[in-house]
């Protein structure tokens, strides 16, 4: 590299040669482009027209190479260089925004729906961990077969395979947006029910907390706490604008999977249960922290603990109360993943 060589940064962050003399082939190329062969691109641009104001910090690379500066040499404007790179970066989309987009996409697809156009009762079926909408295909067909013209079944598509590792909250946001899209497409719907398996039950409980719309004459939570499960809550709210009818879960770990033989294949051995709680997030991501109650977002209690009541995250218990029927099925034996105590 000759001693006279220098680099400089123009207002557009383009490193070019600052030597006043250019090789013949460069002079020919410059003349073809309508530029002065003696000045590099951008040199004639006035300082006032630069994208960024000219800062005072500059760096001459020749200083580090032991060369003496020459009159007219340009310096590498370090601050300007860094600003140009930083200006190209766009903030990544938030997890909530991505969940919203995925829910909208899933709710607009119709290939996993079945039922007559005249049906006014929406049944949403939700899969569990690493599952998919295909898990409910047979059950959806049986619903429509036994209740023709009465139910319209939508098998949830927003949470499948590895997306079920994203955590109960993000999965719940996706499901909530998916349900909104289905309701918007089918204006004749009046009632809604949910049927969920395993982890899908927790996701659905979170989703209805986001979809819940309280009634104007709804009684206070203190009064509704005194009502038995058989009694209907007067003035109960709605879910996505529809009348809530049935909320059914099957083998859902409502209490999580931590301790007390909630994960049967660990046989209640304390050291195994402690190890599972500390390593679950390596296997199933944020969902593992939620299931084992090890999440502490912003110093808040674990998500499953927050979901046992109405809170800033959602009206979880009010939404659950609004359903006329709430049923939780559990496997007494032969279920090595979800113990009957938690489901």
Write the topology of this structure.
Elements: E1 7-9, E2 15-17, H1 24-32, H2 61-64, H3 78-87, H4 95-107, E3 113-114, E4 121-126, H5 137-146, E5 151-155, H6 168-185, E6 191-197, H7 199-211, E7 212-213, H8 221-224, E8 238-239, E9 243-250, H9 270-291, H10 303-306, E10 310-311, E11 314-315, H11 316-321, E12 325-329
Parallel strand pairs: 4-5, 4-6, 6-9, 9-12
Antiparallel strand pairs: 1-2, 3-5, 7-8, 10-11
- Number of DSSP strands? 12
Mind telling me the CATH class of the largest domain? Alpha Beta
Number of helices: 11
Pairing-aware structural class of the strands and helices? alpha/beta
Estimate percent helicity.
25-40%
Uncertain spans: 1-22, 25-65, 219-232
In angstroms, what is the radius of gyration? 31 Å
What is the count of distinct domains?
2
Look up the CATH topology of the largest domain.
Rossmann fold
Strand content: 5-15%
Q: If strands are numbered along the chain, what order do they take across the biggest sheet?
A: 3-5-4-6-9-12
Largest sheet: 6 strands, mixed
Question: What pattern of helices and strands is seen along the backbone?
Answer: EEHHHHEEHEHEHEHEEHHEEHE
The overall pLDDT average reads 76
Overall geometry: globular
Tell me the span between the first and last alpha carbons. Answer: 74 Å
Based on the structure given, which CATH architecture of the largest domain is correct?
3-Layer(aba) Sandwich
Domain DUF676: 117-342
Protein name: DUF676 domain-containing protein
Biased composition (Low complexity): 10-22, 41-55
Pfam families: DUF676
């Amino acid at each position: 590299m000759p001693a006279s060589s220098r680099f400089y940064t123009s207002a557009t962050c383009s490193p070019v040669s600052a030597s006043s003399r250019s090789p013949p082939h460069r002079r020919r190329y410059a003349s073809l482009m309508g530029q002065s062969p003696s000045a590099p691109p951008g040199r004639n641009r006035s300082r006032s027209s630069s994208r960024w104001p000219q800062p005072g910090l500059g760096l001459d690379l020749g200083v580090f190479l032991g060369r003496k500066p020459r009159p007219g040499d340009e310096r590498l404007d370090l601050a300007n260089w860094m600003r140009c790179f930083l200006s190209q970066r766009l903030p990544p989309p938030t997890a909530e925004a991505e969940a919203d987009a995925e829910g909208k996409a899933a709710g607009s697809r119709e290939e996993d729906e079945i039922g007559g156009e005249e049906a006014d009762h929406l049944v949403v079926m939700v899969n569990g961990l690493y599952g998919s909408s295909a898990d409910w295909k047979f059950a959806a067909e049986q619903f429509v077969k036994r209740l023709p013209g009465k139910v319209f079944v939508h098998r949830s598509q927003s949470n499948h395979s590895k997306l079920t590792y994203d955590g109960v909250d993000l999965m719940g946001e996706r499901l909530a947006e998916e349900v909104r899209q289905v309701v918007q497409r089918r204006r004749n719907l009046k009632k809604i029910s949910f049927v969920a398996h395993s982890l899908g039950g927790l996701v659905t409980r979170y989703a209805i907390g986001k979809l819940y719309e309280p009634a104007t004459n709804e009684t206070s939570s203190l009064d509704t706490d005194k009502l038995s499960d058989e009694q209907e809550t007067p003035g109960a709210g709605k879910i996505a604008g529809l009348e809530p009818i049935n909320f059914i879960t099957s083998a859902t770990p409502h209490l999580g999977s931590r301790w007390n033989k909630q994960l049967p294949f660990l046989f209640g051995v304390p050291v195994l249960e402690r190890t599972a709680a500390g390593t679950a997030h390596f296997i199933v991501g944020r969902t593992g922290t939620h299931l084992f109650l090890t999440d502490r977002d912003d110093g808040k209690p674990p998500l499953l603990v927050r979901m046992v009541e109405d809170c800033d995250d959602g009206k979880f218990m009010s939404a659950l109360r609004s359903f006329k029927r709430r049923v939780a099925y559990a496997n007494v034996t032969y279920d090595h993943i979800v113990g009957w105590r938690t489901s």
